[in-house]
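# step 3/5: fold
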Amino acid sequence: AAAGLAGCGLTDAEADGVAALYALPLRSLNLMGNELTALPDVAVGSAMTEHITLLGLKSNKLNALPSTIGFLTSLTALFLTDNALTELPAQIGQLSSLRKLQASSNKLRSLPREVARLKELELLRVPVNAIESEDRVSDALFAPCL
């Protein structure tokens, strides 16, 4: 199943409704093009943690991701382009199935070293950020396994 709420003008006031979607066995959740500045925490054992493979959060106003994002171990694609993220949580390294991570056009200063744990990662896009040097990306990608 999939839920498409792209471009619906959702704000943080509707975040409880978004959290209710976590109980559904969704494989895809598209929240692109809304006004969200934060996401509700993902509960351990919720249907979303077992089923979701695609999470689309492009073109919102997110300034952080919850650390509970790491519970989405079936996630294969995470789209974060065009937000206001200054960092990614270390728990991103727990997304063991992740193949695509797009986080262009944010305010990222670096990537967490835990990105090196993403063994299935095929595509990483982080241009148009505040990353000071390529070394900050290389350090994250080629860090010794933690």
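# step 4/5: annotate
Strands lie at 2-4, 28-30, 54-56, 77-79, 100-102, 123-125.
# step 5/5: archive (pending)
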